[in-house]
Design goal:
The chain is 20% helix and 35% strand. It has 505 residues and is an alpha+beta fold. A six-stranded antiparallel beta sheet has the order 4-5-18-17-16-15, with no helix packed on it. Strands 6-33-32-31 form a four-stranded antiparallel beta sheet, with no helix packed on it. Helix 1 crosses helix 2. The chain is elongated. The termini are far apart.
């Protein structure tokens, strides 16, 4: 039987055994290791040279001691280097084994922590939803079928539409809408006579450049910001909805996140900032509309108006009611204070999903886009379809009313942008975009002078001439939202590259 050194894995010339670990070593190797570490290399316990026990073995041929000649001296040097390499290799093997054990423990602890965090997050979300449900003002009304005895409304061309009134459009609500529309119409006519002095000029707008980019608002694991809105009264307050199911309030001036609002179980498809209150709204394919308190950082209301994905959201000029559209083919008009659905309507003859919705500036009519390329104009008071705008050849992705109330801009998956005259009910301008251009967002500035388009890139058109004055392609992904700052002094955009960008002079 041959002995093997535990350090070099070779037959030792001068074998010895350690009484601490009972392992056999080459004496010169173990002596060097003890001189450096003072411990047994196997179990790390204290060990001295005096404790080593020599093992007597018979060697048929004993190695000759190195002489003073040059070649033996070189061999002696090589042997010393080999011994050092063996010691270093052994130490590295021990350190590698220790590191592997520590990494295994760390990964196990990380996995356990992630499971605990996920469970706690789920419990907190469930508790918040339960609290919102228990609040007296959070009376949640589930959508119901229209009773058979309820008469159906008649739309344009004598088409019947199902009207589901959970609470009802009372005469007080209708009068409130009418009074607000009268005031807004008067104010709009006055503003229409003059252009705001602080409005950015077209020649200055064409000089806009990217001045800021923020990529850390939403989770990097599920990239993409899907929706964008600015507070109408303070456009430095930015609202975004992401594919990570979160709603984020961002302060442009301070360049920091004000609040991160969590509660949706699917991506956030639409967001709206209330103009007069510290409240924001969000919609999601999880079939819910949520009302959030920015200061409190929590959900104060859950509106369940639909049974399928909510595709569009628009706030009425009174600030008290929400319009929503859904893939369940209904549009709904809801009270944000009580969470109650006042009315739900669908066009039974169409039988297709609604893709977007937007109030007219006066608030008495609104438009919806459909998956079968139709734009429908509705009378809110009568809940009837009063006009249809055919012309697109793909699902309508976005619509926007001009501030003056005369124009409607629509975009669809046919890579075109159409402008409609609401007074003559006809298409007066079609802008053909690049092949495969995807229109995801349309917005007029507050004065109705400029129209911004977000999709495969960002484009800004000057109204009336409808000529392009600006084009940006800084986003590395699809542009999902565009918005103008006050008096068009800056432009904000979001994209699937998870970034929020600002453009100005």
């Amino acid at each position: 039987m041959s002995l093997v050194c535990a350090i070099s894995n070779e037959v030792p010339e001068h074998p010895c055994v350690s009484p601490v670990s009972s392992q056999v070593f080459e004496r010169r190797l173990i002596e060097k290791y003890i001189a450096e570490n003072g411990a047994d290399p196997i179990n790390g316990q204290p060990l001295s040279e005096e404790q080593l026990i020599d093992i007597k073995v018979s060697h048929p041929i004993r190695p000759k001691a190195p002489s003073a000649t040059s070649i033996p001296a070189i061999l002696k040097s090589l042997q010393d280097e080999w011994d050092a390499v063996m010691l270093h290799s052994f130490t590295l093997r021990q350190q590698l084994q220790t590191t592997r054990q520590e990494l295994s423990h760390a990964l196990y602890q990380h996995d356990a922590a992630c499971r605990v965090i996920a469970r706690l997050t789920k419990e907190v979300t469930a508790a918040r939803e339960a609290l919102a449900t228990l609040k007296p003002q959070a009376g949640l009304i589930a959508p119901q079928a229209t009773p058979a005895s309820q008469p159906a409304a008649v739309g344009a061309g004598g088409e019947a539409m199902e009207v589901s009134e959970q609470v009802g459009m009372t005469s007080e609500i209708i009068q409130k809408l009418q009074d607000k529309a009268t005031v807004l119409t008067t104010e709009r006519k006055k503003r229409g006579k003059t252009v705001p002095e602080d409005l950015i000029r077209a020649e200055d707008l064409s000089k806009f450049r990217q001045v800021a980019s923020h990529a850390g608002l939403h989770s990097a694991s599920i990239p993409g910001i899907i929706s964008l809105d600015l507070c109408p009264t303070d456009t430095n307050k930015v609202l975004t909805g992401g594919a990570d199911k979160n709603v984020v309030v961002f302060d442009r001036r301070e360049e920091q996140i004000v609040a991160t609002l969590k509660g949706h179980t699917k991506k956030v498809s639409s967001v709206i900032y209330h103009p007069a209150q510290s409240v924001v709204f969000s919609a999601s394919p999880d079939s819910t509309i949520r009302v959030w308190s920015v200061s409190g950082g929590n959900c104060v209301q859950v509106i369940r108006a639909h049974e399928a994905s909510v595709t569009g959201l628009s706030l009425h000029a009174t600030g008290d009611y929400l319009l929503s559209s859904s893939e369940d083919q209904y549009w709904a008009f809801s009270d944000i204070q009580t969470g109650r659905v006042l009315t739900k309507v669908t066009d039974e003859t169409a039988g297709c999903a609604l893709t977007c919705a937007q109030f007219h500036p006066d608030g008495l009519i609104f438009g919806t886009g459909t998956a079968d390329s139709q734009i429908k104009i509705w009378d809110l008071k009568e809940r009837t379809n009063v006009a249809n705008f055919p012309g697109h050849s793909g699902p309508v992705t976005s619509i926007a009313f001009s501030e003056n109330g005369y124009y409607l801009a629509t975009g669809a998956q046919d890579s075109s942008l159409k402008l409609w005259d609401l007074r003559k009910l006809k298409n007066f301008k079609t802008i053909t975009l690049d092949n495969n251009y995807e229109v995801k967002s349309l917005v007029f500035d507050q004065s109705g002078t400029y129209l911004a388009v977000g999709g495969s890139d960002i484009r800004v058109y000057i109204c009336k001439q409808w000529s392009e004055v600006l084009n940006f392609s800084d986003h590395s992904g699809l542009v999902t939202g565009v918005a103008f700052g006050e008096h068009a002094q800056f432009l904000a955009s979001t994209g699937m590259d998870r970034s929020l960008k600002f453009y100005s002079l």
